[in-house]
Amino acid sequence: MLSDHDRARLRNLIAAYSGLSPASLGDEALEQAVAQRLAVHGLEGLDAYWPLLQQDGELNRLAQHLTNKETYFFREERHFRLLRERVLPDLLAGRRTLRLWSAGCATGEEAYSLAITLLEAQAQYGPFAFTIIGTDLDAAAVDRARRACYGPRSLRRVPEPLREKYFRAKGPDFCPIPPVKDAVRFAVHNLLGDDLPPDLTGMDIIFCRNVTIYFDEAARDRLNARLAAALREGGYLFVASAETMGHNRGRLALVPLDDAFVFRKGPTAPRPRRAEPPPRPRLPPPPLRPAPAGRQGAGGAFDPTPPLDRARRAFQREDYDAVLRELDRLPPDPSARQEADLLRAATLLQQTRLEEAEAACRRALDREPWQAEAHLLLGLIRRQQGQAEAAVQSLKQAIYLQPTHHHPHFFLAETYRDLGAVREARREYENTLNILRRRPAQPPTRNLVGLDDEMLHRACLLNLERLGNWPPPAPLGRSRT
Ligand SMILES: C[S@@+](CC[C@H](N)C(=O)[O-])C[C@H]1O[C@@H](n2cnc3c(N)ncnc32)[C@H](O)[C@@H]1O
Q1: Which superfamily does CATH assign the domain made up of 77-264 to?
Q2: Does ligand 1 have an atom closer than 6 angstroms to the CB of 24?
Q3: What is the mean pLDDT of residues 74-90?
Q4: CA distance 286 to 290
Q5: Is 141 close to ligand 1, i.e. is its CB under 6 Å away?
Q6: Has residue 118 got a pLDDT over 80?
Q7: How far apart are CA 255 and CA 249, in angstroms?
Q8: CA angle in degrees (0–180, nearest 5) for 67-73-79
Q9: How is the chain split into domains, by residue range?
């Protein structure tokens, strides 16, 4: 029988290690987990067990008893459909080798479902290579994933044709065939551990679903930062629907895709539905020396486009390195400096180069202290720097200067939500919706914060719903359907 003091200490230790919130660790579950570990070690009481918990691996084994490992093939099937129909065409337009991570993979069904989806997609989109890694805190679950044989319950959502094509019966079980099994490797890894190993970086797609349900706010935030760092620019993060708003922390763009939301690193414009991956536009190589207004094109042709226009276009197509290159080439024309600094700040923000983004913003504000857009960008930088209170000040300043600008209202709502100020957050989401309702429909071009109106509208509704007790919203005006 554990004392209250013991339970509190254990809860805090497990929470700090795994992210599981102390409140989610019920008395009975904790008692049982400790009892099982004491039995394994042949120990009588907690006093003798404490020193073991400081040793490598024991805390992991204790935590394993307390995590939920429920999973099955093609869980939340629409994610796999969106991956195949919407996300892969986008990514394959840029490269033909993809890296995927099933983070918190439990016994491996999610990782193998990814492998089956990509093998099917190869028939659709032509040859491409991919690697999939599945990781979990729980070494026993990872062992089962490596063994790769599953009972019928795990396969309950696998469509019959896929079951026949990709599984072989082995006694009462079904095992993925070698092309599926060999496509995935597994590792034991704590998502909240100290490091992000190099083989878990540069990811194009991360599935981290149903992992944070029992996490507290701080752990969710740490995990979100970790996953954002692991993604490649333009890469996608899928979380379970119930976890979406917990992951909406401003680091990644929330992108509505058909009937679901996904996160995307950097660019935020929703991808148009495409039948074929279109070729990506190629830039001519940069000139050796800056040209005053235009420049030599790839074939020696003179490109008369002014550099600021080229930078704007590069921003539209989310080629951030090109934006910065073009901005570096700008002639010393004072009239272009202000917009150039705002564009630079927005670009550096997308690249999470926050200090440089702030410096560009400050230059713009020194020149024009009353520009709402500059205060808005500074607010977004502050948010990403984790300075919520300072972000509120900057965003309020932007609203004061331009009360009908919807973006500062939206990000103020998001910041209030982060701060737990529910009433204020709701008010600002409602303000954003009111402004959107009055605005004529806009083309979905990328603005400096990368959110188009439709996306903003859906995010406000979703967040209001999550904040609860909100009356059903009025429909959008005639300008949008
Ligand atoms: C409910 S399962 C989800 C499996 C799969 N992603 C799905 O959606 O079906 C949650 C998994 O997250 C793992 N997990 C929880 N905290 C973790 C952490 N800090 N690091 C790595 N894995 C963790 C658990 O061990 C468990 O296997």
Answers
A1: Vaccinia Virus protein VP39 (3.40.50.150)
A2: no
A3: 93
A4: 9
A5: yes
A6: yes
A7: 13
A8: 95
A9: 4-64, 77-264, 370-467
